[in-house]
Design a protein that fits this description.
Structural class of chain A: alpha/beta
Largest interface: A-B, 37 and 37 residues
CATH class of the largest domain in chain A: Alpha Beta
CATH superfamily of the largest domain in chain A: SPOUT methyltransferase, trefoil knot domain
Strand content of chain A: 15-25%
Shape of chain A: elongated
CATH architecture of the largest domain in chain A: 3-Layer(aba) Sandwich
Oligomer: homodimer
Number of domains of chain A: 2
Radius of gyration of chain A: 20 Å
Helix content of chain A: 25-40%
Number of strands of chain A: 12
């Protein structure tokens, strides 16, 4: 296999350009960096993997990723360290990246599967938080994550990295604003639980057995009043010590695990 | 008040030097960056605040922090933006930092208070993880965090930032290695619960009503076998989806909240 060595080639530039939202939207592709993300991509979304780029060293270190990609007839290209560094925005892509086709489900598709546990993010701006919520939702066995249009792009390299592969495990719906999301979920009979530090009732006092969605707001200022008011209940994670709050990803994961414990018995 | 304007002064250098562990150990002082950390320092550890450095703009924005510091007879110094930037290792210290005296309790002091809920970190290397565990332990109302000598220094600026002020809310014990910690906790009748993804039983199946400590290992490779074997039980946070794991801070916080729910009924 010929090794790609020119970090200024058009191919390298087009991979690097996937760091920009406009390019992702136009090409309907996104970038996955590092062995964990690429492994989960070839395992769970092999048909969508367009290209895998790997240094000779990383190819030796992760033979099962390369094998799985090749079995699925995906294009695996060996590249120099310099080319890989030029493709990626991280300092440590650990020798492997993949370009993957975007395939987001619609909310209607998710609702047709009669979900029991969802999480809605609105106004979430921090990539690490959004990615960690997706990872936590995956671990808690939630049915999908729904991210409103005023939030960070969940296919940005930083969010994808923070999901630790969960991007390929759990459906993530985007493209709707929060009033549309609320209307659709309500129409499907899904209870809306606003997670908000200002609540008087705690998550342990709520009925979490029927289908519901946790609605989480901005990292710093929480949910907008009109969103909170549109929900069926407002609940908080109890704070027993002197901490002002938990971070968003932590609060979301605790809410989702409280639901899983009740729903899965 | 005279404004300090020389970013190359000895005072500035001595503040900046607190980014180094050796200097913190020699001077028994550490650096707190940003309004949230400094606010909690002057609220909960006023007697230990040595100096507060603030830009004129930040002094206007956070008058209650300055007032609380001055009421406690702490030294508040106005500094130029350039001086503040030279004191801090972050790009965005938000105009305010404080130098605070170290006052870590001993494990014997903590045990004398008959704690019911503790968390032990061993081999934890990532500052963000360690800080977020301290924040989560504070929120869950744990009695203390115990960090073994082979872990990250919990008074490094990065850890302190990640605690979001919880450094000043919950006792953090350091300076003991993991065999000493295990022996002391066992001697005090505290059950040791190893949190480990390899466990067969989940945290929901354990008895969390009596006094116990969650023992958490390294971010990547978990607990060392001899530490796991030395614990009374090995338990895992259940993973319901396809995620390989939760990150350390998330797992610790879920464990601690499971305990709080049982202990606080």
């Amino acid at each position: 296999m010929a090794v790609l060595t020119n970090p200024r080639s058009d191919r390298v530039k087009s991979v690097r350009a996937l760091g920009r939202r406009s390019v992702r939207e136009r090409t309907q592709r996104f970038l996955v960096e590092g062995p964990q993300g690429v492994r989960e991509a070839v395992r769970h979304a092999a048909g969508r993997v367009v290209d895998v780029y790997v240094t000779p060293e990383a190819a030796q270190r992760y033979p099962e990723i390369i094998e799985t990609a090749q079995e699925a007839s995906r294009y695996v290209h060996e590249v120099s360290d310099e080319v890989l560094a030029a493709m990626s925005e991280t300092d440590t892509p650990q020798g492997i990246v993949a370009v993957v086709a975007i395939a987001e489900p619609t909310l209607a598709e998710i609702l047709a599967r009669r979900p029991k546990l969802l999480v809605v993010l609105t106004n979430v701006r921090d990539p690490g938080n959004a990615g960690t919520v997706i990872r936590g939702a995956d671990a808690a066995g939630a049915d999908a994550v729904i991210v409103s249009t005023n939030s960070v792009d969940v296919l940005s390299p930083k969010v994808v990295r923070s999901t630790a592969g969960s991007t390929f495990h759990i459906p993530v719906v985007t493209g709707l604003d929060i009033p549309e999301i609320i209307a659709e979920l309500r129409g499907a009979g899904i209870r809306l639980l606003a997670a908000d530090g200002s609540a008087t009732r705690t998550i342990d006092e709520a009925d979490l057995s029927s289908a519901h969605a946790w609605v989480m707001g901005n990292e710093a200022w929480g949910l907008e009043p009109e969103v909170r008011d549109a929900c069926d209940e407002v609940l908080k994670v109890p704070i027993h010590g002197l901490a002002e709050s938990l971070n968003l990803a932590m609060a979301a994961t605790i809410c989702l695990y409280a639901s899983a414990r009740v729903q899965r018995g």
